[in-house]
Amino acid sequence: MALVCLALNVTADALDDVLRALPGVTRVETLESADGVAKRLVMFEQPIDPLDDAVGTFEQRLVVRHRGFDRPTVIVTEGYGNEYALHPRYTEELSELLEANVIMTEHRFNGASSPVTQRGLTGSEAYASTLWEYLTVKNSAYDYHHIRTTFGKKYTGKWFSTGISKGGQTALFYRVFFPDDVVANVSYVAPLNKALEDGRHEVFLDKVGTAEARERILSYQRMTLSRKAELLPMLESYVAAKGYSFRVPLEEVFDLMVLEYPFAYWQWGDSEATVPETRPKMVPKAKKRFGKPDFDMVEPEVTNDELFQSLLAKCEPNYFARETPYVPFNVQAMREIGYYGYDVKPFKGLLSRPSYEGYMRRVMIPEELSHLEFKGDLYEQCCRFLRERDIPAMFIYGEWDPWSATRVVLPSPKKQMHVFIQPEGSHRARINNMPDAMREDILSILNDWVK
C-alpha cells in the first residue's frame, strides 16, 4: 500500500534565512545529506525552567531535514543525544513513510544540549549543580511544545511526533502534556514503568522465548559466576585499558554484568549461537553394557576467554561506570520514568552480595545526586491519559523485547489508539520489518492520519 502523496516542495534556497529568522534560533549550519534532502543543524534557545525565565536558558540541538514548508512535519523526541542524526545517511522511518520534514530534537541535558556543560561545569561541581532539578519530563515536554509553536509558524502541514525506546516514552509524555500539538504520535518500543525497580521485567524474562534458550543463558550465567576468580583479572585489565572507574568494587560490577546478560540478549534479538554452550551433554561410552549403550555426562570445554568475550558483547562495563554517557537517563529513571531490577534467586552463593536491590542508586547515580527519590505521579498520569482519551496514537513493540514487559496496555478498546506487537520481535521492531499483514494495517492507519 502506498501512502497518500501530497505535493512535494523541495525548494530550499531560502531555508537558511527562514530558519535564522525564527525567534530563539541562534545558529544554522548546512549538513551533508546523502539523499539530497536539505539538512540543517539548528541551535535553539530554550528556557531551563519554562515557568521561570529568571533561571536562564540553554541551547538545544536540532537536526532539520527539510522537504517543504507545506509538507507534514515529524518531531523526533529523542530521549538521549542526537549525534547520529548529523551523519549524511541519517533518515527516520516515519518521516520517510509520510514524505515529511524532520525536526530531530536532542533531549535536554544530553549531548550538546546540556545546561550543565554549557556553563562549563565539570566533575563533582557539575553533579552538585541545582540545574539538575530542571531535568524533568514536564520540562522536556515544554521544550517540544516551544519547538512546535515556533517552527509551526513556517511548517504549516500536519505535525506528528515519534521516538524509539526512551524517545518513544518521550513522545508519549509529550502527548500527555500537550495532546493537541500533533495529529498523532508513533512510539516505538516504549516502556511505561511504574517503579524504579518495576518488577514485571524479571517475571517476563522467566517466560520469554524458548525454554531451550532460557536454559542455555542460565547455564552460561552460572558457569561465568562460578569462574569469577579467574575472569575478574580479565575484567580488571579491560576496564583499566578503557579508563573506567566505578562506585562499587569490581566484583560487584562483574555480578551486575552477568545479571544484565539475559536482558541484553532478548532486548537485541541475539541468536543462541552467541551464548557459549555450557550445559553438560550425554555422550555414549565406547563400551556397551548388556548390549545397550552407556552414557557419561560430559562438561563442555569452554574457555575463560569465550565466557568473557560473550559477557563483554552483551554488557559493556561502561554501562555501570562513572564515565557512562547515560547519567541524564539514570537521573530520570531515579526520579520519574523507572527501570528494572534483577532476579538473584538462581545464583545463590555465586554473587558478591545477597541482593542487588537498589543497585541504581549505589552504582549508576553520582553521589551528589543520590538523594533523588522516585515518584509514581508520571505513571499514574499516563495511565489516566490512556484510560480517558482516544486520540490518534500508535505503539509498536517486539514480543520478546524485555521492555515490552511494561508496554502500553490500553485499558479498553479504542478506535484511534493502536498497539502492534511484532511476533518474536526485539527492541529493533519497526514498521518496515513488521509481518506483511501487520505492516499493511499500520500503513493504512498512517494513510488516514496524513490525509
Low-confidence stretches: 4-10
Cα-atom radius of gyration: 24 Å
CATH architecture of the largest domain: 3-Layer(aba) Sandwich
Counting DSSP E segments of at least 2 residues, the number of strands comes to: 11
CATH class descriptor name of the largest domain: Alpha Beta
CATH superfamily of the largest domain: Alpha/Beta hydrolase fold, catalytic domain
- In terms of DSSP E residues, the strand content is 15-25%
Shape: globular
Numbering strands along the chain, what is their spatial order in the largest sheet?
1-2-3-5-4-6-7-10-11
Structural class: alpha/beta
Describe this structure in words.
Strands 1-2-3-5-4-6-7-10-11 form a nine-stranded mixed sheet, with helices on both faces. Strands 8-9 form a two-stranded antiparallel sheet. The two termini are 14 Å apart. With 451 residues, it is of the alpha/beta class. Helix 5 packs across helix 6 (166-177) and helix 9 (228-242) crosses helix 11 (304-314). It folds into two domains: 15-194 and 376-450, Rossmann fold, CATH 3.40.50.1820; 201-369, no CATH class. Residues 4-10 have low confidence and may be disordered. It is 35% helix and 17% strand. The chain has helices at 15-21, 93-98, 115-118, 123-127, 137-151, 166-177, 200-205, 211-226, 228-242, 250-267, 304-314, 327-337, 359-364, 377-388, 436-450; strands spanning 25-30, 38-47, 57-66, 73-77, 101-105, 159-164, 184-188, 281-289, 292-298, 393-398, 417-422.
